[in-house]
Amino acid sequence: MKSYVTLTAQIDDIEAAAADLLKGVGTDFSLEASSVGILLCYSDMDVQGLAAAVGAKAPFDVIGCTAIATMDKAGDKAGGFHEMAATLTVLTGGEGALSAVVSEEIVPGNVDAQMKAAYEAAASKLSAGPELLIVIPPYILEIMLDAYTNAFNAIAPGVPIVGGLPSFNAAGDENLTIFNGSVFSNRLVMIAAGGGIRPVFSVQNVIGGDVERKRKVTRASNNVVYQVGNESFTDYLRSFGLPVEELVHGNNTITFVSNPLLLESSEKEAEFSFARTLHEINLEEGSGTAIGLIPEGAMLSICALERDQIEKAAAEGVRILKGKMAQAQGEGYVYSTVLAVSCIGRHLLMLPNSDAEVKGLLEEFPGGPALSGFYGYGEIGPQGAGRTQNFAHNESLILCAF
Q1: 277-326, pLDDT tens digit by residue?
Q2: Is the pLDDT of residue 152 over 90?
Q3: 93 pairs with which residues across the strands?
Q4: Residue 101: its pLDDT value, please?
Q5: Calpha distance 123→98 (Å, rounded)
């Protein structure tokens, strides 16, 4: 499989942007029997116009989403971090190696059915079973990201997934997925890839907090935590000096993303840890609502996500990825593509040095593969080291090479 990444900084002139993104596709970059595109664009631009312009000109299906920031590297070009830009990644391979689909409308209660239909539609277009899914669900607060990973784990056990939720500035712009010439607020878009690819992953999560901050989750429901240990969740936050009353009002995003919850599994046969970003605090209930699942019985702690930790993790993530790539490369396999999904929290914490994580990533980036990625409201990748089950992450950096 081969890949090709293009970039445009034209966010006002849509026709010029589409021309930039498709420049060289089919000429400098020859297309094989099956091809798909991934369009990532700044959320505060004419997303519908760009989707329509690219969809009308591209000789293949295109999926994508909005994002507050993206990252790229194409061949020998330097690449980098972008806030007001759009990128197009073209994947091409043999007959039946790639397919793209869009789901029907997703609402609470129909996730499993819609994921099954989308998966079957994508898989039916491949010559053999999918070896990787690239998945971008819609950002719907009433539906946890875990609902999508749980559905795919049941529908297609053992098939790895990379992806995440779109993002936007929530200041007059929209949070959308893209399929060909249309945009959606409530549909999932997906690419199924096969043809003998050998995907490998690196997942960089939040590291553990102080032992004295750990408490067992004693009462929770889905993504809402009510009690930890023998106290309410809000009393737990107060005990560590967080301004709980202030967090109910005003702009609390930075506080929430810089103080993620770390959950540690209580199942010895499946020990792993993962982060959850708080979305809301309810003083009356004494509860906190996160973007993803908070299981009862897990150990919970408040962590501090630091800037230097993010930079170091990016470089370490690439080193781990290169180590995993080495075995297949030694057997003659050629990696062409690295997809990256990082949390918007990691982006916001780096301000004003927004590009620090991407710089760390590119310092270690291997020669040869192209890079394409975005910052989202949640990330999808393997559950943890040595585990193949797909999982919904927060505050993480997911890298996938294939």
Answers
A1: 888 899 999 999 998 899 999 999 988 777 888 888 999 999 999 999 99
A2: yes
A3: 34
A4: 98
A5: 9
Partners of residue 134 on adjacent β-strands: 162, 191
pLDDT at 342: 96
Q: Which stretches within 261-392 are classed as H helix?
A: 307-330, 344-349, 356-363
Distance CA 129, CA 132 (A): 9
Residue type, 291: I
Helix H or strand E encompassing 135: strand 132-136
Instruction: Report the alpha-carbon distance of residue 147 to residue 150 in Å, rounded.
Output: 5
Long-range residue pairs from 119-124, CB within 8 A, at least 24 positions apart, any chain: 119/152, 119/155, 119/156, 119/190, 119/192, 122/190, 122/191, 122/192, 123/99, 123/156, 123/192, 124/99
Tell me: cis bond preceding 138? Omega within 30 of 0 counts: no
DSSP H or E run through 118: helix 111-123
Task: Name residue 163's beta-bridge partners.
Answer: 135, 380
- Cβ pair 231, 169 in contact under 8 A: no
User: pLDDT, tens digit, for every residue of 229-255?
Assistant: 999 999 999 988 888 888 777 667 778
What does pTM read for this prediction? 0.93
298-303-305-306 Cα dihedral, nearest 10 degrees? -150
Structure tokens, 333: 């396999």
- List, in sequence order, the alpha helices (H) in 248-343: 253-258, 307-330
Distance between CA atoms of residues 4 and 375, nearest Å: 20
